[in-house]
UniProtKB/TrEMBL annotation:
It comes from the Bacteria. The lineage of its organism: Bacteria, Pseudomonadati, Pseudomonadota, Alphaproteobacteria, Hyphomicrobiales. One of its GO terms (biological process) is carbohydrate metabolic process. Coiled coil: none annotated. This is Glycogen phosphorylase. One of its GO terms (molecular function) is pyridoxal phosphate binding.
Amino acid sequence: MIEVARYLSVNRIAYFSMEVGIRQEMHTYSGGLGLLAGDAARSAADLDLPMVFVTLASREGSIKQQIDADGNQIDGPDPWNPEEWATPVGAMVAVQIEGRQVWIRPWLYELKSARGPQVPVLLLDTNVPENDPRDRIITNRLYFGDQKDRIKQEVVLGVGGVRVLRALGFTIDTYHLNEGHAAFLSLALLDHHRLNRIPGIPEPFDYDVHAVREKCVFTTHTPVEAGHDRFSYDDVRAIVGDLIELDQLKLLAGPDHLNMTQLALNLSRYANGVARRHAETAQKMFPAYPIRTVTNGAHVPTWMHPAIADLFKTLAPHWAYELEDLLKADQVPDEALWAAHQQAKRELVDLVRDTTGVAMDPDVPVIGFARRMTGYKRPDLLFHDIERLRAIAGRRPFQVVMAGKAHPRDFEGKAMIRSIHAHMRSIKDIPMAFLPNYSIAIAKRLVAGSDVWLNNPVPPLEASGTSGMKAAFNGVLNFSVLDGWWLEGWVEGVTGWSIGSDGSDPSPEAHAAAMYAKLESTVLPLYHEDRARWIWMMKQTIAKIGAVFNSARMMRRYATEAYLRA
Ligand SMILES: *Cc1c(COP(=O)(O)O)cnc(C)c1O
């Protein structure tokens, strides 16, 4: 265990997440949840927080998206090779799955801050020769397969993760369950805390539930009902057997289904949502549990374009670790900021040309939209009224770049991708492109090279969203429905613009009308006719959003409000 020895001298917080977006070459992420975990790890390293991250190896990634001539998403595996990026750790642990012993080998990735400190990330892998072929594939594809496959993955993450940490000699002060996916870890801890029952005294539990609650904190990430894992007890028992007795499990995870969110809430001392509005929504869903708020943040040094970062380096050499320095954005000369932005924009224009053949003009505003292609995010809302859209572009031109993947079984999301492609083909007078296979690398180009970052989910379903923060770090102006983090970051006409008002009619008709009206009367005129004011807004958004919606602030809040015990 020589590989991890240097991490064993202090008690650590173990952050469990199905996905962690570590780097472009490691396909251990699918989307926002993974990038959030990655940014949490990057800031934990910057701040030298005593943490260890636990996730799956996902050797075949999540999905590799190709788009055929008809706009259909073709999804295939997206392999990467742990050998190239991580170190095998000389320890294996086993969990029981369907009565078989399934061995788990961890890989170690050491995530290093540019400032020096590093945090260990353990990638759990069942693809070892000791395992039955059925079990070697458990950790291959992120979120793949049916409910049973999902249970197996979550057992490897939760139960396997706890055992791996123990086997390696980690002392864990607090476990952070990043989403309900990780909730099996609390059962592994329960199993460890079996009570010596005092005969004759009735107790609901055979376990020291209190001791486990003291060790766990939980972050919920979605107000969408389908986003919460619910498993049938028959499936769970067929796969894990009696990790704890069924009657006891039902008391913790619900009478009819094993609800992973419920389990996590019952076995955590602290629970939070990822933006204020989301915490309010979650509080209504789970009235019996206090739900706090830690609004998400993104890692500024990762998402800010180097040309813009250089401007801050001149002003404040240590800005990347003293993000309050971003409040000095006012002192950046207009021409320098515009030149840096145009450099980022030319890189996006080049990427669009090289991947899609579409020619874009760096002097015409680019509207960027990139997120998971799924119903509530309404990626096709921009095309609600094509004639209106074309009329607006006829008066003041703009261009559109989109990207995003649909989950393999999200047929509505896939239909939206098809319809976006059909619109893009038929609208000849607005340059438009869809970049396939959205990834960290494409996100970096898009959030830096767009001018306007569009977001139009159905409120209150966007728990937080983070891509708008990444855009803001680059002076890209958010134009968004009031939901998630934007309710907190939005200052109208200063950091960006709203679509509709808080509580206004959320129908596609109403939101599309509000979007077209403001695009036409406010956003495009400002870009084309008042560049000085536009650049002033770019500085406002970098300063106000960068100094607050960063993952260093987020991790400091987790450290003082969730990890630190009163
Ligand atoms: C930031 C990011 C996301 C999350 O974007 P949302 O705004 O939360 O939808 C998803 N995928 C990638 C590659 C990202 O960088």
